[in-house]
Amino acid sequence: MGWDVMMVKPYDRNDDSLDEEKMYEFSKEDLLKAIKTVFEIGEIEDEDWIDYENPDFSVSFDLSSEKSIMLYTELLEDEGEEMLLEKISLLSEKLDCRVFDTTEAEFIF
Fold this sequence. Notes:
Blueprint: E1 2-8, H1 28-39, E2 49-53, E3 57-62, E4 68-75, H2 80-95, E5 98-101, E6 106-107
Antiparallel strand pairs: 1-4, 1-5, 2-3, 3-4, 5-6
Helix pairs in contact: 1-2
Protein backbone atom coordinates (compact mmCIF):
# COMPACT_ATOMS: atom_id res chain seq x y z
CA MET A 1 0.00 0.00 0.00
CA GLY A 2 1.38 3.39 -1.00
CA TRP A 3 0.91 6.54 1.04
CA ASP A 4 2.25 10.07 0.52
CA VAL A 5 2.79 12.73 3.15
CA MET A 6 4.19 16.25 3.05
CA MET A 7 6.22 17.87 5.80
CA VAL A 8 5.92 21.65 6.24
CA LYS A 9 7.00 24.31 8.74
CA PRO A 10 4.18 26.90 9.02
CA TYR A 11 4.88 30.17 10.83
CA ASP A 12 1.80 29.42 12.93
CA ARG A 13 1.52 25.76 13.95
CA ASN A 14 -2.25 26.21 14.29
CA ASP A 15 -2.59 27.30 10.66
CA ASP A 16 -3.95 24.39 8.62
CA SER A 17 -3.37 26.04 5.26
CA LEU A 18 -0.59 24.95 2.93
CA ASP A 19 0.28 28.47 1.81
CA GLU A 20 4.02 28.46 1.10
CA GLU A 21 4.12 32.20 1.76
CA LYS A 22 3.38 31.36 5.41
CA MET A 23 6.09 28.71 5.84
CA TYR A 24 9.69 28.58 6.95
CA GLU A 25 12.31 26.99 4.75
CA PHE A 26 13.95 23.75 5.83
CA SER A 27 17.67 23.80 6.50
CA LYS A 28 19.14 21.18 4.16
CA GLU A 29 21.86 20.41 6.70
CA ASP A 30 19.38 19.87 9.55
CA LEU A 31 17.09 17.88 7.27
CA LEU A 32 19.80 15.48 6.14
CA LYS A 33 21.08 15.04 9.69
CA ALA A 34 17.57 14.25 11.00
CA ILE A 35 16.83 11.75 8.21
CA LYS A 36 20.17 10.02 8.73
CA THR A 37 19.53 9.78 12.49
CA VAL A 38 15.87 8.69 12.46
CA PHE A 39 16.17 6.22 9.59
CA GLU A 40 19.74 5.13 10.42
CA ILE A 41 21.08 5.93 6.97
CA GLY A 42 24.82 6.10 6.37
CA GLU A 43 26.13 8.01 3.38
CA ILE A 44 23.69 10.09 1.32
CA GLU A 45 24.68 10.47 -2.33
CA ASP A 46 21.86 12.69 -3.64
CA GLU A 47 20.80 15.49 -1.29
CA ASP A 48 17.55 16.09 -3.22
CA TRP A 49 16.25 12.49 -3.36
CA ILE A 50 16.80 9.74 -0.81
CA ASP A 51 15.51 6.17 -1.07
CA TYR A 52 15.23 4.12 2.11
CA GLU A 53 14.00 0.55 2.46
CA ASN A 54 13.77 -2.00 5.23
CA PRO A 55 11.83 -5.32 5.27
CA ASP A 56 8.60 -3.62 6.48
CA PHE A 57 8.38 -0.37 4.48
CA SER A 58 10.14 1.92 2.04
CA VAL A 59 10.30 5.70 1.86
CA SER A 60 11.49 8.02 -0.89
CA PHE A 61 12.25 11.56 0.30
CA ASP A 62 11.89 14.38 -2.22
CA LEU A 63 14.00 17.19 -0.78
CA SER A 64 14.03 19.40 -3.88
CA SER A 65 11.71 22.06 -2.41
CA GLU A 66 12.90 24.41 0.31
CA LYS A 67 9.49 24.76 2.01
CA SER A 68 8.02 21.26 1.81
CA ILE A 69 9.34 17.73 1.93
CA MET A 70 7.47 14.92 0.21
CA LEU A 71 7.65 11.38 1.56
CA TYR A 72 6.45 8.64 -0.79
CA THR A 73 5.96 5.53 1.30
CA GLU A 74 5.15 1.91 0.59
CA LEU A 75 4.20 -0.68 3.20
CA LEU A 76 5.89 -3.99 2.43
CA GLU A 77 4.48 -5.83 5.45
CA ASP A 78 1.32 -5.13 7.49
CA GLU A 79 3.27 -4.62 10.71
CA GLY A 80 5.36 -1.90 9.03
CA GLU A 81 2.65 0.76 9.44
CA GLU A 82 3.24 1.37 13.15
CA MET A 83 7.02 1.54 12.72
CA LEU A 84 6.66 3.91 9.74
CA LEU A 85 4.35 6.24 11.69
CA GLU A 86 6.78 6.24 14.62
CA LYS A 87 9.67 7.20 12.33
CA ILE A 88 7.66 9.96 10.62
CA SER A 89 6.52 11.31 14.00
CA LEU A 90 10.09 11.33 15.33
CA LEU A 91 11.35 13.03 12.18
CA SER A 92 8.68 15.73 12.47
CA GLU A 93 9.67 16.32 16.11
CA LYS A 94 13.35 16.65 15.22
CA LEU A 95 12.55 19.09 12.42
CA ASP A 96 9.84 20.94 14.37
CA CYS A 97 7.42 20.58 11.48
CA ARG A 98 3.92 19.34 10.71
CA VAL A 99 2.98 16.33 8.59
CA PHE A 100 0.14 16.50 6.06
CA ASP A 101 -1.50 13.28 4.83
CA THR A 102 -2.14 13.93 1.13
CA THR A 103 -4.69 11.09 0.86
CA GLU A 104 -6.89 12.21 3.74
CA ALA A 105 -6.10 15.91 3.16
CA GLU A 106 -5.41 16.56 6.84
CA PHE A 107 -2.52 17.11 9.22
CA ILE A 108 -1.59 14.01 11.19
CA PHE A 109 1.31 15.43 13.26
